Write a sequence for this structure.
């Protein structure tokens, strides 16, 4: 919109973040700002420089025949899986390596056995023992198992700090710290036994797990938007930043997140 549409120009410039590859850093961090300054135009507010993707330790090139087709990758694994791998495996601002083995290890370990398993077993426990419905009680989170809740909240604060600092790989990693912690929490609490022996404790455990899954889905949105939507849909969750007291969660299980 520059010189043709003032409103459009003001909407898009100056850029909040100017995103570039490291091979064109000189042009966009020296020459381009100099041109803007000479024209008395505002500079980008921040510049974020990313590295290269290598393939099994080698530079990607047509001559080597090791170019990865992103379209074929998405067709096989899905866009969210590819996004997750690139954000998690490749350090923000540095070079990172791709291999099919690494991607499949992340898929099976982090996604299927980690996040997918957590969502499915919590949804199934509510479906089988609470007729598929849970009314959220905020009191439980403030009074029960405070240590676990504090750990989740501290990790969420770290996630937000990493986002602001463009440490995207660390932000994604912090989500999986919570996923792993929540899975351990399930193993420790044994809600399948609580459902039979102590229904009151079972309800408290499920309330805490629904809350943590809500926050996991909320944090996933910038990285795996379709997965976040599916998790919200599974729990009948509106996906607000915070859960309102007495929110009514209704389980609607579909296909597994990561078959």
């Amino acid at each position: 919109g520059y010189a043709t549409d003032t409103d459009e120009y003001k909407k898009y410039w100056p850029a909040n973040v100017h995103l570039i590859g490291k091979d064109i850093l000189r042009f966009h961090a020296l020459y381009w700002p100099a041109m803007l300054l000479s024209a008395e135009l505002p500079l980008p507010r921040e510049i974020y420089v990313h590295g290269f993707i290598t393939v099994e330790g080698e530079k990607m090139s047509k001559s080597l025949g090791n170019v990865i087709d992103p379209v074929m990758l998405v067709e096989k694994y899905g866009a969210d899986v590819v996004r997750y791998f690139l954000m998690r495996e490749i350090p923000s601002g540095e070079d990172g390596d791709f291999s099919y083995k690494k991607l499949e290890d992340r898929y099976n370990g982090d996604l299927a056995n980690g996040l997918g398993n957590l969502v499915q077993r919590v949804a199934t426990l509510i479906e089988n023992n609470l007729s598929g419905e849970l009314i959220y009680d905020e009191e439980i989170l403030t009074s029960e198992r405070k240590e676990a809740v504090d750990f989740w909240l501290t990790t969420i604060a770290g996630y937000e700090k990493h986002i602001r600092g463009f440490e995207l790989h660390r932000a994604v990693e912090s989500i999986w710290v919570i996923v792993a912690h929540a899975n351990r929490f399930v193993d420790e609490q044994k809600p399948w036994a609580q459902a039979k022996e102590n229904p009151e404790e079972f309800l408290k455990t499920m309330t805490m797990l629904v809350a943590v899954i809500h926050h996991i889905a909320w944090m996933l949105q910038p990285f795996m938007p379709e997965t976040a939507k599916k998790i919200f849909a599974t729990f009948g969750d509106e996906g607000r930043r915070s859960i309102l007291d007495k929110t009514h969660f209704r389980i609607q299980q579909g296909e597994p997140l990561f078959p």
Q: What stands out?
A: DSSP finds eleven helices and seven strands in the chain. The two ends are 46 Å apart (CA to CA). Residues 100-129 form the longest helix (30 residues). The mean pLDDT is 92.
